[in-house]
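agent> fetching stored inputs for the uracil docking request
agent> found them:
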Amino acid sequence: MQGEAHTFRMYDLITKKKRGGELTKEEIQYFITGCVANMIPNEQQAALLMAVWAQGMTDRETTDLTLAMAESGETMDLSSLPGVKVDKHSTGGVGDKTTLVVAPLTAAAGLTVAKMSGRGLGHTGGTIDKLESIPGFRTSLTMEEFFDGVQKNGLALMGQTGDLVPADKKLYAMRDIIAAVDSIPLIASSIMSKKLAAGTDVILLDVKMGSGAFMKTLEDAEKLAQTMVNIGEAAGKRTEALITDMNQPLGLAIGNALEVAEAAEVLRGNGPEDVREESVMLSAELLYLAGRGHRDECRRIAEETLCSGKALEKFCAMVRTQGGDDAVIRDPSKFARASVVHEVLAPWDGYIVGMAAEYIGGVSVMLGAGRDDLGDAVDPRAGILLRKKYGEQVTKGERIATLCTSKEDVVAEAEKHFLEAISVGAETPQPRKLIYARVEKDKVVRY
Ligand code: URA
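agent> prediction call returned; pasting tokens
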């Protein structure tokens, strides 16, 4: 394939990386330009990605890959919007509805939130699917509508436009089918290219760690976080990461409308403590990165904004502006209910010592809350309400979860898989942390 400035042979690039060599900036640019222009055969794309998966990349290579990807399509220019533009991004989890709290909370506290979010894939949920469970809510906006929404409310949330980072669309789809998703340089460049193209001043990454996350250990999560933070800082963005627990689902609700209802409860000052605490921590950190004072002061602002009801009002204002009915946010019992509601009863006595988040996410997909393929539709009402969580005591016959679906025929199998995802012991397990560490440029602070 002919590059614009340099011509290389993909065969040579693959050979170099396969043997552990370091690709130059020009070679990386050639690969990305060639992929987007459909000039590199799939076999060679796959071979180079697998060589990167096996051999890794240096920080310099990962940064060059990220920048080449970020510039592979359109980029957002948010400079006409007032205030500090902030973005919070999670690496993907089960029951993680913190964006639905953090975005209105920080906007209510005076930051500017112009955010593009994704859909769920595999066992993890996505903010866009969740928002679409609100009757009438539009996530597909023109740029004018998006900017108008931010001007009006300080907050707009939309799906990613097709023209942003086309290189990631191609490479992610390829990685997905060749089993090369779980690679630190490939995940870091995929996420950070989209964050850089989205044009905010501040980027806060919520790197999930545990059974339901890409990163299963704290060491790997710290490495991914450090790689992404250093890329963001090298590109001139104020960037940090928090490493948070994904050894069990976050909160009690998993599934689109169920999660919006739970987030609305948190915005009202109720809801599960873990969702509230993580949302407040993330919001306080965004306020800190945006220069609103010391961490203690930012925590106080975040708490006060949540307690005052201003975050809830901000969320309702965004919902109305984007065509949605905020009645369901003010009273989540108005959400449409699933036609099949099945209680799961404990077949054992003991303490819950494990909740495999990945499998529980898979059960919620089976019930209709997620999709196996990108084009599938999701059922907004489907999902799981957990009645017991890690560390709690259960007695035989007690209700431990409620399965919600419109597919009666999957219930028996979903219940079987759900029970397999729960481990029970004779004693209370050690308490787990919700937030493990904060990662700054070249620095990790463990909590
Ligand atoms: N999320 C992304 O956007 N990309 C990855 O590679 C993994 C998670």
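agent> quick read of the result: The chain is about 45% helix and 15% strand.
agent> awaiting further instructions
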